[in-house]
Amino acid sequence: MDFVANKTGENEYSVVCWESELKAICGMAAEEEMEGLETGGELYGLYTQSDKPVIMFATPAGPSARHGPGYFIQDLEFFKYANKFLFQEFQINFIGSHHVHPHFSFSPNPSSIDVQGAKSIGFKNSMEKVYLFTITFERCSRSFNKKIVRVNSYVYEIKNSFKPIPCKILVLPGISPIRRAISDYPEAKKLIRPDCYLPISQIRWDGCYQINSKLPIQKPQPFNKSLIRQFKRLPAEIQSKIQVQCDHEIMVISIPMPPKGTLYLGCVTQNGYRTIRSVYFSSTESLNGPIDITKRATKWGPFTRIQTIYSTAKSFIRHLV
Ligand SMILES: [Zn+2]
Predict the structure, then answer these.
(1) Cα(287) to centroid of ligand 1, in Å?
(2) d(CA 296, CA 132)
(3) Contact 67/37 with Cβ under 8 angstroms?
(4) Centroid of ligand 1 to alpha carbon of 96 (angstroms)
(5) Is residue 254 a part of any domain in this protein?
(6) Which of 38, 87, 91, 219 is buried deepest, with most CB atoms within 10 A?
(7) Is 182 helix (H, G, I), strand (E, B) or coil?
(8) Tens of pLDDT along 75-130?
């Protein structure tokens, strides 16, 4: 049975989350996964005037939490302590929770138990909505630095008692001010798991990464080593015909796809990260204009390798009439 609402039309919900919190959530999940166990915690923050939550802090599992393959039960005393401390010191509230979903469930969607949990905590605390982050592994590896982790975000509306609705995540770059401030409280040390952050390049989510105008934007380096390495994996006859155009943080890479047309990759460079936002195929044979194949071609998200995009596009084009 599916416990998630179908996406109908434009999804109206989104959640804002600091980069540090996403890195902490995924870091803790990745560390526990090394032992074959699951973990989780709670999400704390504030609501904007337009009723959008801003996740300011994500707690870890408490010292008496129960972790197993296929389950995670939070330490209730720790949860109560975190709730009180975060409200008293920073006036931030419980917004929802995060936890790992096991490989064998194959589903990022909240389970019936997750829905029941959200419902009961929402009722008890007179909340209108409860947010849920489920964490899944897109690539498992024995090495922490090779794991690829996805954060799936949902909102559960208490009043309507509908199924959880998938929502997008807007990531604020940098470290949450609450995370910085907590390090000044020696008694609250257990709220932070130091050295347990997954690099943002290993994290996937549905949504975007906000441009922060105050942070220095690194100049795009179109022919940096990583890009050259990726181009070298393409067929030799293609390599010499690739074109790269840059305008500030926007980059367009044109890759010829003989004999049928050209592939256009739209990239954005922000704070040193280059992400692929769109992939279009422009056919020499069709009069219908470029075809958007972003979803199909960037199957590993905005950091999908160019050679992967090229081969996916090639097999897609082969089927074009
Ligand atoms: Zn779950």
Answers:
(1) 47
(2) 27
(3) yes
(4) 12
(5) yes
(6) 38
(7) helix
(8) 999 999 999 999 999 999 999 999 999 776 668 999 888 999 999 999 898 999 99
Cα(57) to centroid(ligand 1), Å: 20
Based on the domain organization, do 201 and 242 belong to the same domain?
A: no
Give dist(CA 7, CA 30) in Å, integer: 29
CA–centroid distance, residue 177 to ligand 1 (Å): 28
Domain span holding position 253: 225-318
Domain end point (choices 157, 181, 209)? 209
Answer whether 304's CB lies under 8 Å from 298's CB: yes
Q: Are 294 and 206 in contact (CB under 8 A)?
A: no
How much distance in Å is there from the Cα of 106 to the middle of ligand 1? 11
Question: Do the beta carbons of residue 270 and residue 213 sit within 8 Å?
Answer: no
Q: How many residues in total does the chain contain?
A: 321
CA 59 to chain centre: 17
The pLDDT tens digits for 6-51 are 444 444 789 999 999 999 999 999 999 888 889 999 999 999 988 8
Number of structural domains found in the chain? 2
Q: 180 CA to middle of ligand 1, Å? A: 29
**Residue written as tokens 């609501």?**
47
* Gap from CA of 12 to ligand 1 centroid (Å): 23
